Amino acid sequence: MIMQYSSRLSRFDSAVFFELNGVKQELREQGKEIIDLGIGSPDLPPPPHVIKALTEAAANPQEYGYPISEGSPFFREAVATWYANRFGVNLDPVSECLALMGSQDGLSHLALALVDPGEYVLVPDPGYPIYEVSIHLANGIPYPMPLREENGFLPDFSIIPTEVALKAKMMILNYPNNPVTSVADRAFYEKAIAFAKRYNILIVSDIAYSELAFDGYRPMSILEIEGAKEVSVEFHSLSKSFNMAGCRIGFAVGNSAALRALAIVKSNIDYGIFTAIQKAGTAALLGDQSHTSKMSKIYQSRRDALLDSLARIGWHIPKPKATMFVWAKVPVPLSSREFARELLRKTAVAVVPGIGFGRMGEGYVRIALVQPEEKLKEVAERIEASKIL
Ligand SMILES: Cc1ncc(COP(=O)(O)O)c(C=O)c1O
């Protein structure tokens, strides 16, 4: 048969993330060892008590029935307890906490629940690619909010045209940010909430990296701000905070009407998260929280190992306060795509071209700190030897 793909599918173009796979394959065939700093998949294990909770629950035959789509009461209560302990935010576990198969599950389905064709969604540019894809899924229109270095990589609400703001249904914020690594403070969130209230826009705050922060910095939740729940939902992931990326567990909290709509969409798509995984997630949220600071220390040392050694060879990159990434200006007169290709060919080091995250990402590459310190130091040695700079 002739397979005619939907026109929607053409919007799901992630080619830039995969176009270097051919080069990687060639290098492997030549016996070269690739240092892959591309995809942000955590390389560290979950805490032992999480693995124990998962294995014990998985060994129990009673855990194999269909789970509850919105999440088991024990998991939603654990989410509420974690938010209260971590951010001092009170949540109702039933109406204000929703379990997700990773935050990607919720981020990709929310627009289907809330956005009608032709409505705008304000998205960060550069930004995590699923934000835009989710809007196309709902036939909405993504409206990019440029994140510029001179504004601390925060969106400037004053340049959003009134007619766009009036037709906007949601605004996505992501701090600490992937890919640019910037962070947001209370004053910024207060401005965002005032803007959202003026134009009746739902703020979707993605805090996937809230627990990976350095030099004593502690990211905040938008829900810490008085009245935020009226206009905000927040998404969090256990993938990075507890190294549980493969378990597919996360959650959304905040505005109950928005969460109800998301729960309706999801109840037609999935039947919830394997109960044993929810038990492991509960162990992570309620157990010893020192794991996250230990993990942050590891990423901080990696950050320093990489950026100090790159600075010694003349590539100066500002140190991020949070996330597992470095957002680096391309140090030579090449596009981000060309530079990533050149770097891979000459040094077997893989990074992601900034253009993959949106038009404003051009001129940068994202480097994920997903290798041990020795490997990150070796990156600088390889770059120096290659004379690419
Ligand atoms: C900014 C951001 N949000 C959300 C996610 C999705 O995480 P998960 O679906 O594993 O919870 C990621 C994953 O890399 C991310 O970088």
TrEMBL record:
It is an enzyme of class 2 (transferase). GO terms for molecular function: pyridoxal phosphate binding; transaminase activity. Its EC number is 2.6.1.-. CDD domains: AAT_like (cd00609). This is Aminotransferase. It holds the Pfam family Aminotran_1_2. SUPFAM superfamilies: PLP-dependent transferases (SSF53383). NCBIfam families: PRK09276.1. The keyword Translocase does not apply. InterPro entries: Aminotransferase_I/II_large (IPR004839), LL-DAP_aminotransferase (IPR050881), NHTrfase_class1_PyrdxlP-BS (IPR004838), PyrdxlP-dep_Trfase (IPR015424), PyrdxlP-dep_Trfase_major (IPR015421), PyrdxlP-dep_Trfase_small (IPR015422). PANTHER family: AMINO ACID AMINOTRANSFERASE, L-GLUTAMINE--4-(METHYLSULFANYL)-2-OXOBUTANOATE AMINOTRANSFERASE.
